[in-house]
Amino acid sequence: MGNYSNRKHKQRRNALADKLEKRGIEDQNVLAAIREIPRHEFVDTALEDRAYEDTALPIGAGQTISQPYTVAVQTELLQVKKGEKILEIGTGSGYQAAILCEMGADVYSVERQEKLYHTAKEKLHRLGYRPQLKLGDGTLGWSAYAPYDGIVVTAGAPVVPEDLVEQLNIGGRLIVPVGNQNSQVMVRITRVSENEYDEERLQHFKFVPLIGEKGWD
Ligand code: SAM
């Protein structure tokens, strides 16, 4: 890609980050990652010109790359610190995994759709990001690498998936949209101690469904 095109995308990314800050995103590390990650690389070339609009876009297989505002809210709620182990459920395009890598997290991500898993892996590697990726049912988490300091679910769940709660470290945060298939409330569960959890119910969103053993059929 030429210099002109790169500059154009960079300007659009900065404008998007400014807009998200005006909408209430305060975590400067989240905003810095949004200024850095080339979202246009995670969508089809036909949609490249729309990559820096604050909107969800189709990525094939009936799925979407989440709206940047949603990615920013979920990432801010995770309270990511450098070196923390973060699990994402729903790799999708790979964009949010790239944001988490850029913030210095040790990233694990699970996707159930084979085509998306392969495309995301290829894009992330081409851009120099190396999260651990798995093809499978994320409603069960990824027990081999548990516990996690943060878990973010990027699809809407009917209930909070128990396995994910159990895979949290003490002090760990689980961010999961929960509700019916038309609307979900963003839930943050913090594991305060071995047997104590704090639950917060925040804004409403609309996500694609979390499909799996502990999700929708
Ligand atoms: N984080 C993604 C991104 O940055 O593009 C957003 C992806 S999209 C909103 C949600 C993704 O969750 C879809 O790719 C979908 O296939 C995936 N998904 C749904 N149920 C899942 C499950 N049980 N395990 C893993 N991935 C799942």
TrEMBL record:
Its EC number(s): 2.1.1.77
Catalytic activity: [protein]-L-isoaspartate + S-adenosyl-L-methionine = [protein]-L-isoaspartate alpha-methyl ester + S-adenosyl-L-homocysteine
Main location: cytoplasm
The encoding gene: pcm
Molecular-function GO terms, alphabetical: protein-L-isoaspartate (D-aspartate) O-methyltransferase activity
InterPro entries: PCMT, SAM-dependent_MTases_sf
Family designation: Belongs to the methyltransferase superfamily. L-isoaspartyl/D-aspartyl protein methyltransferase family.
HAMAP family referenced in this protein's UniProt entry, alphabetically: PIMT
Range of residues in the leader sequence: none
Keywords: Cytoplasm, Methyltransferase, S-adenosyl-L-methionine, Transferase
Name of this chain's protein: Protein-L-isoaspartate O-methyltransferase
Alphabetical list of PANTHER family matching this protein: PROTEIN-L-ISOASPARTATE O-METHYLTRANSFERASE (PTHR11579), PROTEIN-L-ISOASPARTATE(D-ASPARTATE) O-METHYLTRANSFERASE (PTHR11579:SF0)
Organism from which the protein derives: Rhodohalobacter sulfatireducens
Active site: S66
Pfam families, sorted: PCMT
GO biological process, one term: methylation
Described purpose of this protein according to its UniProt entry: Catalyzes the methyl esterification of L-isoaspartyl residues in peptides and proteins that result from spontaneous decomposition of normal L-aspartyl and L-asparaginyl residues. It plays a role in the repair and/or degradation of damaged proteins.
Location relative to the cell: Cytoplasm
